[in-house]
Amino acid sequence: MEMASASRFSEEEFQEACAELQRPRVSGWEIPVVTSVIKVYQRPLKKLTGLHEYKVSGIVRSPPDLLADVYMDLDYRKQWDQYVQELREIKVDGEEAVYWQMKYPFPMSNRDCVYVRQRRDLNFEGWKVHVILAQSISVPWFSEKSGMIRVKQYKQSLAIQSYDSWRSEVFMYYFNNPGGQIPFWILNNFTKVRSQEAAGEVCLADVNLACGAVGLERCAISGLRKLV
Fold it and tell me: Distance of CA 80 to CAs 3, 84, 204, 208, Å?
């Protein structure tokens, strides 16, 4: 299963995700969240923006094929992610892209984002690795909606391989600049919450097959929405 043209993501980006799954490069990164199965790393951007980038590594209780399929399932995300306002595929220059609208708490404006994604199943050092890359793109003709702030910097990579017969080993890189004028004190709290949400994005609790549908329970608790 693949989305986006090969030109959007380089072979090096896919190989880098595979390499970090085997040996995460986290020298100099903080570790704000550690559980028995998941570690979350964070690092502030070089500019004093209050924003951080995140890496997550750990073990998830679901097989890799199913986990990758769930991650690509936009319709199912609408069921488990309570902060999705709108999520759908669109066409941009003849290729698949995703329009994502996110709920934010009052008095902040909701955010939206247009991004492309691509999934590849690779053989890396003898392991079958599912890699999903996603990145925001600029679409001038797809204008911002009234009362909405466009997220222009979003990037995520996810690599998944088998850990044993029923669990997966995962690595994720995540960065999202919400844009707009958010007070610095909120960003400080946002950093703490984001580190937990980054873990939640990866630490998908038991993924079950029920009535032929994929069941998914999100572990993250979004404290940011409760700050204001």
Answer: 22, 9, 10, 13
Question: Residue 126 CA to chain centroid, in angstroms?
Answer: 26
In sequence order, the β-bridge partners of residue 55 are: 41, 173
The partner residues of 84 in beta bridges, in order of sequence, read 102
- In the chain, the percentage of residues whose pLDDT exceeds 70 is 74
How many other CB atoms are there within 10 angstroms of residue 164's CB atom?
Answer: 9
- Triad 104, 137, 99: Cα angle to 5°: 50
Q: What is the 3-state secondary structure (H, E, C) of 22-56?
A: HCCCCCCCEEEEECCCEEEEEEECCCCCCCEEEEE
d(C-alpha 66, C-alpha 84), whole Å? 22
Q: What is the mean pLDDT of residues 49-57?
A: 83
CA distances from 37 to 21, 160, 188 (A): 14, 15, 26
Reported pTM: 0.78
Q: What does the alpha-carbon distance between residue 215 and residue 133 come to, in Å, rounded to a whole number?
A: 23
Give tens-digit pLDDT for 82-118: 888 999 999 998 889 999 998 877 777 888 999 999 9
